[in-house]
Amino acid sequence: MTFNRLLLAGLLLGLAGWWFSGNRRAGDVPAAVDASAGCPLPPALRESGPPLQSEVPDGMRPFAMQASTLVPLAGFSLEARVLSRKDYGHGREADWSPTDLALGWDGMARDEVLQRLDISQSGRWYHYRWQGDPPLPPREIARSSANMHMIPSSSAVAEALSRVEQGQRVRLDGWLVEVKADDGWRWRSSTSRNDTGGGACEVVYVCGISAE
After folding, report:
1. Is residue 122 within 8 Å of residue 86, measured between CB atoms?
2. What's the pLDDT score for residue 30?
3. Helices in 70-175 by DSSP H: which ranges?
4. Which residues pair with 149 in a beta bridge?
5. Residues of the chain with pLDDT under 70
6. Hey, which end of the chain has fewer CB within 10 Å, N or C?
7. Phi, psi of 156 (to 5 degrees)
8. Which of these, 169, 160, 153, lies nearest to 206 by C-alpha position?
9. Predicted TM-score (pTM) of this structure
10. Whole-angstrom distance between the N-terminal and C-terminal Cα of the chain?
11. Which residues contact 151 (CB under 8 A, 6 or more apart)?
12. What integer pLDDT is reported at residue 162 of this predicted model?
């Protein structure tokens, strides 16, 4: 192999390593997240069923991050089925959230429903489609599932998040937040389970997460 071909092969291998390293699962806390900020549990926790959203207690302060703050919009707690997961190493959002989980509850947690859906994620979106008649009314599919952007609050949460797999049942507790970067960049969570399209995803500051 000539020197030029060796050089080209090396460059291609390096590029592949850079690409996959940026999209790998990592147990590390993202760069912008300050694990010392703490993450108190929300005032109400969900044992089962659809997500439970609760009011932010009076006097609760934003979570301080590196060059940003996370403003709590609502407490958030749920148990759900992991429909898909997608890890991100590039883009501004990845500074806070390395992973999106597409989660389903109620009818969207049932095997016979999920077997008839083709589910994927890309570009911080969650996609589903079916052939023939839908396994559930489309409105129920949208209302019983969501793509959620996970912001781990600590190295322990980041490590637990890195082990979550499609098909598992996951329990998470934390806060829906708006990320406010010091340079003016904003990323605001939805606070409704009934919306769709742009801005409909939840941005979750995760205090605790477990899966089985």
Report:
1. yes
2. 73
3. 111-114, 138-143, 155-162
4. 100, 203
5. 1-27, 31-37
6. C
7. -65, -40
8. 153
9. 0.85
10. 50
11. 30, 33, 70, 96, 97, 177, 179, 203, 204, 205, 206
12. 96
Find, among 165, 162, 164, 161, the residue nearest to 207 by Cα: 161
Retrieve residue 78's tokens: 């749920």
Residue the block writes with tokens 């291998």 = 13
Which of 192, 203, 212, 209 lies closest to 45, judged by CA?
209
d(CA 145, CA 154): 26
In angstroms, how far apart are the furthest CA atoms of the chain?
69
The residue assigned the tokens 């009076």 is 58
User: Which pair of structure tokens corresponds to residue 82?
Assistant: 């992991």
Structure tokens that stand for 62 in this block: 């934003």
Residue 151, H or E segment:
strand 145-152
44's tokens: 């109400």
Q: What is the C-alpha to C-alpha distance for residues 172 and 208, in angstroms, rounded to an integer?
A: 6
User: Is residue 177 within 8 Å of 72, Cβ to Cβ?
Assistant: yes
- Containing H/E element for 120? strand 118-122
